[in-house]
Design a protein that fits this description.
Blueprint: H1 2-10, E1 16-20, E2 24-29, E3 33-39, E4 42-45, E5 51-54, H2 56-60, E6 69-72, E7 75-76, E8 79-80, H3 83-97, E9 107-112, H4 118-130, E10 135-140, H5 141-148, E11 159-164, E12 169-175, E13 178-185, H6 189-204, H7 210-221, H8 223-248
Parallel strand pairs: 1-9, 9-10
Antiparallel strand pairs: 1-2, 2-3, 4-5, 4-6, 7-8, 11-12, 12-13
C-alpha cells in the first residue's frame, strides 16, 4: 500500500539532489540542473524562535542584526550542528522551489562527507524526511563530485578527487564505482575566512566580518586567472621552441 502511495506522489514531484553544505546549500532537479544555490544561514527571531529569513537574505544580515534576531549556521564541519534549525532551513528551501506546485513530496539524494559517522548519516536522512522528502538517500561528496565532472567511475583505474568545501576538505581515490581510500580534514573555506580575519586584525589593527573576509578570499584567490596565466605561459613557451626549431632548419 505504501509503495502504491509513493508512486502516486511521484506523479506530482521531481527527483532532487541536495548538497547540504556548511557554507552553501545547492538543490539540483533531474533534467533541469541547479535551481537553488543559497548560503546555509538562518535568521531566527529570539523571542518567538520562528525563522525570520533563510539563504541569501539571512546572510546579508550577518553582523547587522538587532538584539531580537540572530543569524545561525546550523551546519558545522559538514555535519548537522542544530537539527531543528537545519530542518526549518531545508523546508524553506524546498518550499521556494515548489511554490508553483500544490503537492510535492520528492525523492532526494543528499551529499554527506565521506568521514561522517552512522549517527550523523541518520541525522541527515531524518532531517531530510522531516523537511518533506518522500524518500532520502545518501551519497558521499567525493563520489558526487566525480560523477558531476563526468568521470567514468566504473573503469578499473584510479581517479583522485579533491573536494574543498566550507567546513571540510576531502581527498578520495575512486575506482570501479567505489571509494578506495579517503581522508577528510576539518580545514576548508571557513578556516581560510577566520585566518584572514585574524591576519587583518593583527597586522592592521582592523576588525572585519565574515562577509568581508570571504570577499577578500575570493578576490585574491584567483585560481582561475592563475590557471589561465599558466596555460598561456606554456603555450608561448611551446610556440617559442617550435619557432626556434624552424629557424635552425
Amino acid at each position: 500500500m505504501r509503495k502504491i502511495f509513493n508512486k502516486f506522489l511521484g506523479i506530482f514531484s521531481e527527483d532532487l539532489g541536495i548538497d547540504l553544505g556548511t557554507s552553501n546549500t545547492l538543490i539540483c532537479v533531474r533534467n533541469r540542473g541547479i535551481i537553488l544555490n543559497e548560503p546555509s544561514v538562518v535568521a531566527l527571531n529570539n523571542k518567538t524562535k520562528d525563522v525570520f529569513e533563510v539563504g541569501d537574505r539571512a546572510k546579508l544580515m550577518i553582523g547587522r542584526t538587532p538584539g531580537s534576531i540572530q543569524t545561525i549556521r546550523p551546519l558545522k564541519n559538514g555535519v548537522i550542528a542544530d537539527y531543528e534549525i537545519t530542518e526549518k532551513m531545508l523546508r524553506s528551501f524546498l518550499k521556494k522551489i515548489n511554490q508553483k506546485k500544490g503537492l510535492s513530496s520528492p525523492r532526494v539524494i543528499i551529499c554527506v562527507p565521506a568521514g561522517v559517522t552512522q549517527v550523523e548519516k541518520r541525522a541527515v536522512i531524518d532531517v531530510t524526511r522531516e523537511a518533506g522528502a518522500r524518500e532520502a538517500y545518501l551519497i558521499e561528496e567525493p563520489m558526487a563530485a566525480a560523477i558531476g565532472i563526468g568521470l567514468n567511475i566504473f573503469e578499473p583505474e584510479g581517479n583522485l578527487i579533491i573536494d574543498i568545501g566550507g567546513g571540510t576538505s576531502e581527498i578520495a581515490v575512486i575506482s570501479l564505482g567505489g571509494i578506495v581510500k579517503t581522508s577528510s580534514f576539518r580545514v576548508a573555506g571557513d578556516r581560510l575566512d577566520s585566518t584572514i580575519i585574524d591576519y587583518v586584525r593583527q597586522k592592521h589593527n582592523l576588525l572585519i566580518g565574515e562577509r568581508t573576509a570571504e570577499e577578500i578570499k575570493k578576490t585574491i584567490g584567483a585560481v582561475i586567472a592563475l590557471a589561465i596565466m599558466i596555460l598561456l605561459l606554456l603555450k608561448f613557451s611551446l610556440w617559442g621552441k617550435s619557432s626556434s626549431k624552424k629557424a635552425t632548419k
